[in-house]
Amino acid sequence: MTVLTQSAPARTERQYQFSWADAGPFLALVALLALGFLVNPDFLSVTNLSNVITRSAYVAIIAVGATFVISSGGLDLSVGSMVAFIAGITIMFMNMMAPSLGLWAIPAGMAIAVVTGLLCGLANGVIVTVGKIEPFIATLGTMGIFRALITYMTNGGTIPIDKSLREAYRPVYFGTLGGIPIPILISAIVAVLGAFVLYKTKYGRRCAAVGANEDVARYSGISVIKTRTIAYVIQGACVAIAAICYVPRLGAATPTTGQLWELQVITAVVIGGTALRGGKGRIWGTIAGAVILELIANLMVLSDFVSEYLVAAVQGVIIIIAMLVQRFSK
Amino acid sequence: MFSRKWFAAVAVGALMVAGQALAADKKVVAVSIPAADHGWTAGVVYHAQAAAKEINAAFPDVEVVVKTSPSAADQVSALEDLSASRKLDALVILPYTSEELTQPVKAIKDMGTFITVVDRGLTDASIQDLYLAGDNIAVGANTAKFMIDKLGGKGDIVVLRGIPTVIDDERIKGFQDTIKGTGIQVLDIQYAHWNSDEAFKLMQDYLAKYPHIDAVWANDDDMLLGVLEAVKQSGRTDIKLALGGNGMKDIVKKVIDGDAVTPVETPYPPSMIKTAVYMTVANLIGQAPVRGHVKLDAPLITQANAKEYYFPDSPF
Fold first, then answer.
1. Other C-beta atoms within 10 Å of B13: how many?
2. Does the residue A23 lie in any domain?
């Protein structure tokens, strides 16, 4: 299929060339689905696909925020531990409020999650922009801080959500609306909002401009500090939304919650066609990237020919092939 | 600047000498363990602190000091700090890694300290006076025995394993050796890294792949939590057993409550640190000889004996 697209005559026309580049991650996605079907027809069953796409929602939602940060020339390694930290704060707050507020503790906890996320993002942003510290180092620092805080809050164990709230909150992950799982709907809304802001607003264009060339952006009167800080705040909000969807799944936060998610998020963003060095953001590609990552993991289990010891290696190969498909479809 | 530093050093030194004089007739037992970074180590910290509190209250002549360290390098420094300021009568240590801790523990041993090693052995076994550990092979084997019994000797099962380590390998080996020759067939076995989220995903995939599963074994309770959530979501009723291992309080509670799918549990109890501290102290003050090799079995926890393994206040 990808070979066909390459030999298409449209390649000479600039207009088409561009759209094929954008289509790269989706071609990889389609190729993966076809491969999956060949390996095991159950792969395309509605239950399996809905499970996998629902699972990819966390990484997808966080990756929408990361698309802003990365396209503005930043990086955020703290998102995985931030999810754990926000989930911990949210559960503790909900449990505390449950006796007085009853089920209203759930929306109250969600509000706290968003506020915490915005503050965490703001902290990252200010350290990077005002503090002028390399994003890699700054967020590596906050990554350690958030991880230590959740470990401290849990005493190394688990913070479970109050039993009285558990069943009422459960549908936020397991429920459906019109047949579509709620986490998928939430990530779709986040993606639509993200795409609107990145592609249609002044801020979105500033974001890309700052990422493409900081000096030029500054000379054109764009506040680099403000633009980048806002990108981190958006990232914080996305992490909070992901945490809100995460808590009802297992009903607990632990020190291992969200471990290494930052790498999955960055991989999803890059598979999606966003340049890691900044200047170009692709929200829908990012979403495709997140789904691709989760599909690969799913495919590994559904196929019988990969030894359990080699799963990670095969995953790595598939990610690289997906990137190559994308590169050569340009 | 310098003079102020000297002054501070002298003051601190004087305090330490005074402190030592006060504690001189007390026997000091240092407990060095990894810091809590997941459920099991959190349990170790909890039980070590509980042992220290109980022993310090019960025996005025003994002082148990607990020190947690977040990495092997930190544990080495902690050993130096613990032994620098005073003589240790005994050291109870759960080493982060065998290789890095062997020499530092030997250095303490050379000062005449009684050494108790817990769970993970040192590379030189002659250093330890007492070695105490659980039995990972029995964790797998006892779970398998129960499963064979309960399923009537035949059935299709799926297995979730942890992080590629000796602990994981031993549990899997104990399990596989026991089911060998029976009608129990392992449909699939994959790593889920002792993580509930990964176990949730893996179980969803198992459920999508196999239309009929008789039983699940997750070789750790963190993973079992994810498994149970995935089974619940699928609404499948073919899964008759979902078993874990380790002795997490949530799972032991299920056993106490008579859960149909998780009726038993196999312990690899973090409370073994407490057993080790108590034995060490027994040797110090009760003149009860304890030198040797102690292996705690992994007896099946059933409704009858579950209370013995249930610690509602522990984080694990």
1. 10
2. no
Q: Distance, in angstroms, between B227 CA and closest chain A CA?
A: 10
Contact A156 B41 (CB under 8 A): yes
Q: How many structural domains does chain A have? A: 1
pTM: 0.81
Domains of chain B plus CATH, in order, are: 2-134+270-285 (3.40.50.2300), 136-256 (3.40.50.2300)
Tens-level pLDDT at each residue, chain B (316 residues): 455 555 555 555 555 554 444 545 789 999 999 988 878 888 999 999 999 999 999 999 999 999 999 888 899 999 988 888 788 999 999 998 888 899 999 999 999 999 999 998 888 889 999 999 999 999 999 999 999 999 999 999 999 999 887 888 999 999 999 999 999 999 999 999 888 999 999 999 999 999 999 999 999 999 999 999 999 999 999 999 999 998 899 999 999 999 999 999 999 989 999 999 999 999 988 888 899 999 998 899 999 999 989 998 888 8
Distance from CA of B199 to the nearest CA of A (A): 11
Residue B43: closest C-alpha in chain A = A157
Identify the residue among B37, B38, B221 best suited for mutation to test binding to A, counting A beta carbons within 10 A and taking the highest: B38
Nearest to B36 among A51, A55, A156 (CB): A156
